[in-house]
Amino acid sequence: MEFYAELNELLANTQKSEQAVRKQAEADIKRLRDENPKKFLATLTKEVADEGNNESVRMLAAVIFKNFVANRGGDSRYQDYWVGLDGVFKSNIKEAMLANLASPSNILRSQVANAIATIAKIEIPRREWLELIPNLCTNAGHENLDFKNAALQTLGYICEELKPDDINDQLKNTIILALTSNISSNPALVKTTHLSVKAFFQALPFAHQNFQVHQEREYIVNKLFEAFNIDDEDIRIIAMQTLVEIAREEYDSVEFFFEQVTQITAAAARGEDEKLGAQAIEFWTSLAEEESRRMRKGGNAKGYINQQCQALIQLLIECIQRVAIEDENEEDDELGVATASGCCLAAVALVIGNIIMQPVIHFVSQNVQSPEWKKRYSALIALGAITEGPEKMKYIEVILPGLPNLVSMFQDPNAKVREVIAWVMSKICEHHSEVFTQDRQTLVHVIPVFAQSVQDRPRISNQICRAIEYLAVSTSAQNDNPLSPYFSTLFQILITNAYRVDGDHTQVDLTLASFSALTALSENAGDEVNDQMYAMLLPVLQLLEKTITSDVAQYGEKRAKDIQDYLNGLLQIILVKVGHKLDDQTAGNIVKLLIMIFQSLKKVTENGLIALSGLINGFGERLNVNEFGLYIVWALQGDDDECVRLACGLVSDLAGALRENISRYLSDFVPHLLKILRDQNQDRKSKLHAIIALGDLSMNSGEIFSQQYLPDVLKLLESAAQQSLTIAGQVDDDYELAGYLVQLRETLVECYTSIVHGVTEAPTKSTLVKFAPNILAFLQQLVQPGLAPKKEHFKTILGLIGDMASCVGPHIKDLLRQPFIERLIIHLQNDVDPETQGIAQWALEQIKLSLQAQ
């Protein structure tokens, strides 16, 4: 083998303190790699094996080796490079790497084990290097602890890289036996046990068949339980994490060791080790989540939670009081027992429903007014945890009498208590908003408290923003919106809150939270506040203009851009609702402002287009397209997929707003929409939006579209229709492609329907008649059982057939006599839904009229 003599020095130089030396060494290493990759790999292997090297150099060589073989850099030149190397070379490299597992250095062995696992990930699924796993399993029984430990660690890494289907059941059994047999309570074997337990955690997906066999399952579980007797925190935590995964992956097997695991988890949860206790509670959370999932899907739930219900709730109530934070300025301990208990209560509530109410509410009532802030805090965590699960009326019935006391807790002297009551309120608003809205007098007392508390500490303010957002969403369907009396107050407070700077160095994004609440408040507002909303338009525009001028200097480029995006989204909602109130000058000024934003950023932006959409939908046909049409065209031509889709949507919006006047702009938009459909590299979803836009243009522009563009459009649609049917049988497990094809077929039917409506208004219909056979052939395929059409699909398809009969029926009589149309009509006539029957009857009448025409 050839080697690079200079690589050793370069590896050492990458660890020097001088940045220039490090950078040059890194560049030179890449140069050697690219000059001769095979020689590079051989040299790395040599440097790993050279015991005369500094340990850090050997480790770095192993890491670079692993990353190169795995092509972690994503360099297309080295994709599958290892696969293409000759077998003799690879065998020599693998033998050398395996020999390094005998190194006395634990940390080097770990890196080498990782490198071996990387090769295994490539070769074993290809049915190569199949002797590796049996050899490692044999070494796992070696008397030499270094050999044993190296083998165990390597097996763990291999299991992390492979999928269970990559190896046969015999190899799986061999791995599981090798790992579990090395779990021992012998204090002299702590290191070996630690590696075994850690590796078994990674190997658990390979143990599924073992869990189906009584003796094997019992052996595995008993070995795992033995790990809890070892005086090593890491081993016990990993063993408990493994139990958590067993609850998820081997749920059905838990019944065979349920009593033992109940005792072990209860003891761990009550113990002094916070991390172990949190993992013990996570076991029950996992069981509850799996039972909840099975209950939703009608699966076989074993009822573990109900079996242990009362004892489990008492355990969680006991543990939820072990609040680890001592100061109101501390962050919540996300890995602690108290937090884990709150999460588990929430999962259990979804399984047992109303049963959880009595013990939790009793605990809350006993502690929520306690002089000790931690007890108040714990009580509120428990209360918020059970907002989902119990029946709505049951929950509301219990909460309403105590609501005034809960609201008063916003005045609690402890910030942590105020934070958690804000969280409770957001949960109630999310799941039981009726607590606040069914009696509007409640809002009279609550909204001022929310308005005050939103100005509290950032984490408290964040929860209040969520509460307002959930409340607003819950009132969307109400004619006389209960939030209307507070619209202006909340709007102004939230706008102000969005510009706070005291949350900048926390994990809370108050700008996002405030604008999310503002968006929900505006989007779901009733018409009775339209005048108030219109009054907010000018302040919003002024704030938007500042994002171009002064906000960058004040808040920094990123936050100023975020604010600009949020304001554009808010502007769109306001314009949709009250854009009809605008005068021409104000509408023009809004367009100029949006253009200023595009020009300042030197590109068309998503949120700018969203705001423009609001203006089009609100201001309608009075809008001067010449002022901004060019920017829609730029977006259609751009490479930002989201902007392309939005621009297609704007074309549709303009078609609906301008109606027949859109014909003046067909030459500006249609060629670019057709180019999107012809472009093989164009994003799929963008093509769907372009198809819809073409349909809307056709429907609203009539004769001009039919004469100039309809033949080209129908040819492209015909090609898309054929593709949607051809590929449909070839998607296999590509669910994303399968979903897209369904959307494509539905979009094509929608577009054809729009085109037929447009042609109906045009004097010349020959083009549609020419393409009618292929359109109806496509529709016939869509109703075949193989595509699993739903009733809604049948309705739209028959509606299109009726439209075609109404438009060009006398010219396509033979096509309308096809048996599939008759079967479709009969099928929908027999439906119980009156609307569906009506569509069938209407289509039948249109076809009859066409067939009777001379």
TrEMBL record:
* Keywords of this entry: Acetylation, Coiled coil, Cytoplasm, Protein transport, Repeat, Transport
Kindly list any coiled-coil regions of this protein.
Answer: 4-35
Q: Show the SUPFAM superfamilies listed in the entry.
A: ARM repeat (SSF48371)
User: Where does the UniProt annotation locate this protein?
Assistant: Cytoplasm
What Gene3D superfamilies is this protein classified in?
Leucine-rich Repeat Variant
Pfam families reported in the protein's UniProt record: HEAT (PF02985), TPR_IMB1 (PF25574)
Q: Name one GO cellular component term.
A: cytoplasm
Gene Ontology terms for molecular function: small GTPase binding
Q: By its UniProt entry, which InterPro entries does this protein fall under?
A: ARM-like, ARM-type_fold, HEAT, IMB1_TNPO1-like_TPR, Importin-beta_N, Importin_beta
Which Gene Ontology terms describe the biological processes this protein takes part in?
Answer: protein import into nucleus
Domain Importin N-terminal span(s) in chain numbering? 25-103
Main localization (coarse): cytoplasm
- Name of this protein: Importin N-terminal domain-containing protein
Organism field: Halteria grandinella
Lineage, opening ranks: Eukaryota, Sar, Alveolata, Ciliophora, Intramacronucleata
